[in-house]
Amino acid sequence: MLKELLLILGITYLGNFLSPFSPIPLPGAVIGLVILFLLLLKKIILITDIEETTNSMLSHLSFIFLPAGVGLIDTLGEVSHIWIKLLFLIISTTLITLVTTGVTVQYIIRKKAEKEIL
Questions:
Q1: What angle do CA 73, 76, 77 make, to 5 degrees?
Q2: Helix or strand (DSSP H, E) at 5
Q3: Is the pTM of this model over 0.90?
Q4: What residues make up the domain containing 53?
Q5: Which H or E run contains 41?
Q6: Of 23, 42, 59, which residue sits at a domain end?
Q7: Upper half-sphere CA count for residue 29 (Cβ side, 13 Å)
Q8: What is the distance, to the nearest Å, from the Cα of residue 113 to the centroid of all Cα atoms in its chain?
Q9: pLDDT for 46-59, tens place per residue?
Q10: pLDDT > 90: percent of the chain
Q11: DSSP letters for 60-108
């Protein structure tokens, strides 16, 4: 598991290192995710190489949102005058995400079924 964690952290640090040199202003973590995706896509890294660590990280994902929640509660007074706009924004973006995800999954399912028929 330590080897897997070091691999993931190494890719993340590589993304952070490359971020200032990127022509597009992207956070290093996003660049690291793209690098990891490309390495997985090209089968340079196999899913089994990082599976145990990623499953462990996913099972503790809720802890990542704690600082954001505390920060929101901390700034509640500052955003109280725009809470209706924030609520609308949260609901609308959630619905857009749900619809986009649903349409994408349906498209993938249809394409997969077409491949199986051929």
A1: 140
A2: helix 2-18
A3: no
A4: 1-59
A5: helix 28-41
A6: 59
A7: 0
A8: 27
A9: 999 999 999 998 89
A10: 67
A11: TGGGGGHHHHHHHHHTHHHHGGGHHHHHHHHHHHHHHHHHHHHHHHHHH
